[in-house]
Each structure stands twice: as C-alpha cells, then as structure tokens.
C-alpha cells in the first residue's frame, strides 16, 4: 500500500504546492504506516526530483516525454491512474490548483474512488476510512467529507498546508505509462505567457485594488507597492471588466481563487462574490475610505483612509524599513 502524490511543475520547476502536497501525504503516511510515492510529469531535472525526498517521498516516478511537455488533462489523468494502480496506492493526493481541479474528478472516476476536493486540513483516520475537512460554498462554510471507498482521492487547497522539509532521500525511477491516442484527443499546442510577473495563484502576498482607484492611470502606486512587497497584483471584477487591468488579475467567485499569506485589498468594497475568492487568505488587510465597507468585517487589519494618501505613505515606510 502507498500514497501517490502528483506534483506539478512550471517550465521544469516544481511549484510551491508540489512540496505542500508531498508534506501532506507524508503526514498521513506517518499515521497510517504507508510510503509516499511522488509522480512528476514533464521535463524536471533529476536534482530537483530528488528534493522531494526531503519532503517525505521515498520514491519519485518520473515521466518525461516530449508529448507530455504541456498539460493534457486526459493524458495526465491516465498516467496518474496508471501509476496509482501499479503502486497499489490507497490514497491519491494532488493540489486543488487549476489543473488539479480538472484532474481530480477524472482520476477519482477512473479509480472508482471517493473524492474530497478543496481539503484544508489533514484527514482524520478511522480504520480504513478518512474524514476530510474541505471548504464549501466558496469558502463560506466547511464540509466534512467521509471517504469510505477502497481508493481515495484528496485535492488539497494550495497554501492550506505548510511544506515541511527534513533529511529524507528519494529514489528516482523513469516511469513509462501506457497511453493511447484517445488520451490525446485534446492537446495544448502552445503556451504564450501573458506576463513573467509573480503567478497570482501561487503568490504569498497579493496586492489587490478595486473601483476605488478611479481609473487605470492610478495603478502605478499599486504596482509599486506590490514590487516593494514582492507581491502579485490582483483586482476586482468591475476593474477587469472595464479593461483597467487584465482579466488574468480578476479574483473572486468568477475569477481566480487565491489563498496567500497576506491579501491587501485597496478600494474594494468586499462584495460577497469578491470575498468568495479571497477569504481563504491567512491575513487580510483592508484599505478603504468608507468605514462601513463590508470588507472590514472579514479584515484582520483595516485602515480607514483615502488610498491616494495611504498607499504612497505605506510605500515610503516599507522602503525605509
Ligand atoms: P465598488 O463596489 O464600487 O467599491 C469601491 C470601493 O472603493 C468602495 O468600498 C469605496 O468606499 C472605496 N473607495 C472609493 N474611493 C476610495 C479611495 N479614494 N480610497 C479608498 N477607498 C475608496 N466581483 C469580484 O470582485 N469578483 C468576482 O469574481 C465577482 N463575481 C461576480 C459574479 C456575479 C454573478 C455577480 C452578480 C457579481 C460579481 N462580482 C464580482 C461583482 C461584485 O458583486 C461587486 O460588484 C464588485 O466586487 C465590486 O467591485 P469593487 O469593490 O471594486 O467596486
């Protein structure tokens, strides 16, 4: 018996969530006495693959073929299923990322496994069964999902479980899954990056602004604040709808869901649809000139003030720090 973990990379570099899911699996393995096997798909160097040993993987299955360089949902799901079966995995763990959200249900269906997606804590183990706490209704509630099937699939929310490294080592095996043409009925022909800025879903700090900024010409100070903090920039939906910022920065129910360590919301009212995508952030700081703005109800820290006065002062103070 083993726990199989699918680890994601971008351009051959593991994402932070890769170390989080291996650490998550390791913590389950310590309670259930199983081993953790990581599965990497794509062109990741051996020196990187071996780092997974520090996070608790005893073995890394490495799939590296030209055909699989770009993400293909069906093919990647087929490989995860193949690897789960060949390593007799009783639990499959992956990140509840963009690609994980597409993979997890497909993998679960093929393995006839129960699925807990959006896990935010380690499961409690009750004999053969697991109970997993997940976020529900866009983060407004929690659900406890009981997994009673022989094989179980858990998709862990990024940034909800800390990656913990130690001294371990992992053996690396080249893995050659059996795939057929039907696994490639949809393929990604090319990926053109819109930006080389910090990836929003992966960012530890997000500086986000809304309609209170009045217009796109005022985003200079938002970008400067983000630069000083090493943060990604984000925005509310009306801002991207108006073309002030690209749609790739829109967070919320209909945009990207983020869960950074620090989310700074500037001139955003805090509508329920916006909160749906940001309420999993560890610390929320709200800057708004209206003391009645709903965002203050979920804020850890709040500044009631005019963004055009507060932000330049904040930038100066942070630069002097
Ligand atoms: P506003 O509501 O106009 O708020 C502007 C805020 O700026 C106010 O609180 C104001 O006090 C403050 N302000 C003004 N001037 C200043 C200043 N100088 N300094 C400081 N503060 C100032 N929205 C999303 O963001 N994401 C979503 O995914 C999303 N999905 C939606 C889905 C549906 C089906 C629907 C119906 C709506 C959705 N919305 C979404 C829209 C959402 O309901 C709100 O309309 C939107 O979030 C409001 O954006 P805002 O806070 O930027 O603007």
UniProtKB/TrEMBL annotation:
The keyword Membrane does not apply. Residues 3-188 form the Electron transfer flavoprotein alpha/beta-subunit N-terminal domain. Keywords: Electron transport, Transport. Gene3D superfamilies: HUPs, TPP-binding domain. InterPro entries: DHS-like_NAD/FAD-binding_dom, ETF_a/b_N, ETF_a/FixB, ETF_alpha_N, ETF_asu_C, Rossmann-like_a/b/a_fold. Belongs to the ETF alpha-subunit/FixB family. This is Electron transfer flavoprotein subunit alpha/FixB family protein. It comes from Sphingobacterium anhuiense.
